[in-house]
Q: What sequence folds into this?
């Protein structure tokens, strides 16, 4: 039986009513956040010191060049190239006849200028060998199956690998933007043993970032990732630190006994709401540095910086490795080329949109893939067991 929307309609109406009622309070918190941001900008060194010495349980952005600074995009180069990758996957299914997974990475190269050119393709790869289905620890023989969340992380690593390959193939004639969809921070690794982080991050993702860093020394290559409609609150949390009456913010030590809860005045405010009120279309914000524990522990000179960019009616978050953020030319290149890509792509980078189209695996593709696997097994007279649960889902009983 399909979803009975008539039974959900009343719950949806209740949700909308609650959201409408909370709108005025949310606006008050946003106005308070903007006031704190303006006031804190007058004494940045004091706020920097407070951030450095504090131990909040929420993620706080570190400051680079201020809070309310905003910058227009540099002039667009006459000739430039944009390369992008995006991925999709078919996960391991224990109810199916074979233990395997598939990654499909879309690749796009767009050259703009006197002789425009485009190259679009995808690279599907099946992983079915025993050593491909797990991440192994070389010390004690422990294994972590590559499936679910970890497969999503593996896909991010593969996207970065393919992007580095594309960067290697480009000539040094024109400036190049290499762009990924989503974050540069492999957040999910926090939930896994250290040997998983070592394999996928230190021996994988960061290796490919380093390859691109070395390329950037010989030619203008900027690397960035793009997050549409971000839900992050790193900068808003910085304002919570500014509001706290304690000289050192220690959430575990002071918050349980705090009666005033001054920081709650801006709680729930998202960064994109703040910068919607600060930026004009096409402008970027000041630079900030993430204090993610994954980045602090592993990333080194690829430490992740970010800024917010206003693209027409949306605020996007753009993340950069340190070596791009600290180079004014590469930083400006990332700003202007991402903005140009968004304007060409109706608000979203056209290279990423095309990479997604190359990579996407639809439900019909998944069914055809598993049918191919099972047919191939039967053709070789190999066992093709399917669980009763899987069989039941395919069968109509009434």
A:
């Amino acid at each position: 039986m399909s979803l009975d929307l008539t039974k959900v309609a009343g719950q949806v109406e209740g949700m909308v009513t609650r959201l409408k009622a909370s709108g005025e309070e949310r606006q008050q918190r946003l106005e308070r956040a903007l006031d704190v941001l303006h006031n804190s900008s007058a004494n940045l060194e004091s706020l920097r010191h407070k951030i450095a010495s504090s131990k909040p349980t929420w993620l706080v952005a570190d400051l680079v060049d201020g809070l309310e600074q905003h910058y227009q995009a540099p002039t667009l180069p006459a000739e430039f190239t944009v390369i992008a990758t995006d991925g999709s996957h078919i996960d391991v299914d224990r109810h199916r006849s074979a233990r395997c997974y598939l990654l499909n990475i879309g690749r796009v190269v767009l050259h703009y200028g006197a002789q425009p050119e485009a190259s679009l393709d995808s690279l599907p790869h099946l992983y079915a060998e025993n050593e491909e289905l797990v991440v192994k620890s070389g010390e004690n023989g422990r294994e972590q199956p590559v499936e679910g969340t970890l497969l999503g992380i593996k896909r991010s690593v593969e996207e970065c690998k393919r992007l580095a390959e594309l960067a290697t193939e480009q000539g040094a004639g024109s400036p190049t933007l290499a762009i990924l969809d989503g974050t540069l921070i492999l957040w999910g690794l926090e939930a896994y043993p250290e040997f998983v982080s070592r394999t996928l991050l230190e021996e994988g993702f960061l290796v490919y970032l380093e390859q691109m860093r070395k390329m950037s020394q010989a030619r203008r290559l900027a690397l960035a990732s793009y997050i549409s409609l971000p839900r992050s609150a790193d900068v808003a949390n910085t304002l919570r630190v500014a509001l706290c009456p304690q000289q050192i913010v220690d959430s575990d030590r002071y918050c349980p006994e705090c009666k005033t809860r001054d920081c709650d005045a801006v709680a729930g405010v998202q960064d994109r709401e703040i910068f919607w009120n600060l930026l004009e279309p096409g402008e970027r914000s000041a630079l900030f540095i993430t204090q993610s524990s994954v980045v602090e522990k592993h990333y080194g000179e690829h430490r992740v910086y970010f800024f917010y960019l206003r693209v027409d009616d949306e605020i996007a978050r753009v993340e950069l490795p340190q070596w791009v953020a600290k180079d004014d030319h590469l930083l400006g290149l990332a700003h202007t080329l991402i903005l140009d890509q968004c304007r060409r792509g109706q608000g979203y980078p056209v290279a990423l949109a095309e990479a997604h189209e190359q990579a996407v695996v639809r439900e019909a593709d998944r069914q055809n893939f598993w049918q191919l696997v099972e047919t191939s097994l039967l053709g070789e007279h190999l066992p093709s067991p399917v669980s009763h649960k899987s069989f039941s889902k395919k069968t109509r009983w009434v």
